Amino acid sequence: MEHETQSRPDSLSGTRNSTGAKQPPGNQTATRGRLKQIVRALILLVVIVGLALTGRDSYRKWNQQQQDLQTQIDDLAQDIQTASNADEAQPFIVRRQQLIASKPSLEKIRWGWLLAASLLYGGSLIPGGLVLHEASRLMGYRLPLGPTMGAQVLGHLGKYVPGKAVVVVIRTGKLHDLGVPLLRGSVAVFLETIFMMAVGAALAGGLIFALPVSRWIAWAALLGGLSVTLPTIPRFLRLLVDRVVRKQRSKQTAGTENGKDSHLPPIEPSWRFFIAAWCWQLLAWLMIGACFAMVVRSLPGWDLLGYSETTVLAASMAAIALAMVVGFVSLLPGGAGIRELVLAIILAPVVGQPVALVAAISARVIFIVVEVLAAGLVWAVNRHSSPPKTA
Fold this sequence. Notes:
Layout: E1 15-16, E2 22-23, H1 25-82, H2 86-102, H3 111-138, H4 145-155, H5 165-177, H6 182-208, H7 215-227, H8 234-251, H9 271-297, H10 309-330, H11 338-346, H12 348-351, H13 353-385
Antiparallel strand pairs: 1-2
């Protein structure tokens, strides 16, 4: 049974304070409102700090990469000078020219590609919201699409806080504001997340097998991508959801939200939900991969190794998908350090290590900017559309 809204009735008799006197229902509601505001302010503060630290780390890595490139260029210049003949110096000359060509600068960057990448990444945030909307419906709640999409977008900011728990807190909290009990909301968020990671791993596994990387890496990625798709099949997904429900129940006290969370009916993920979630998340990953390919093409020297545009596109999609999935599993804020390592293994053989590392840093900056702007848009829309509060 689906619910259009879910009310949370307060006791008409109010509650008793420490002196035994009853608190009027209005005071009780006001206290809850103040507590919610405090919690939201704390979450916002944590997110802002996480974003600031991630931005600082990206800036530091950008400068470090520039210094490393210049050091390599200078070392190659010395090798050229100490070479005994022209034949011995030729490899150093070629390598030095490649590094100089791939060294990014404001003049060399193709800003049109970066703008297109930013717009494409903004569009990639939409399919995940549609999956969360379907997952909420699976929980028995037919929510308005706009606010559900807003919950998904706002949750992205929690990625930059260690542990990734803030992502769940933000999205579950926004669903709770729409009338979804906390347990049902957390399960809906879990469903969206597991499909996002499974589809990304499967896409990366399939593409990496066709790239010029070590065969053991290709086989590991392919088998790993196929294995993570199993939990999304309805039969296995039911078992996984039941486990999540039991784990979440153990963290809650009996009778949470007047008992509504303590009596969650059996959840039956259907093939309809499976197909819809896979299609939407695949679209999201294709858009993210195309976005990252545009970031790569915006940088100087991306085509120096001579691979075709199709190979560069496939490598970009595979690299960013695997990097984001592994970064998520690592629980580090924004996948710090993990993305660079994965990209060095998957993308560097196609575009070169300097381009791969600079692309990783540039993509992280674009993702942060787009997600902050999208969250600001959601906040502005919610503020404009929210009805005035009454005393």
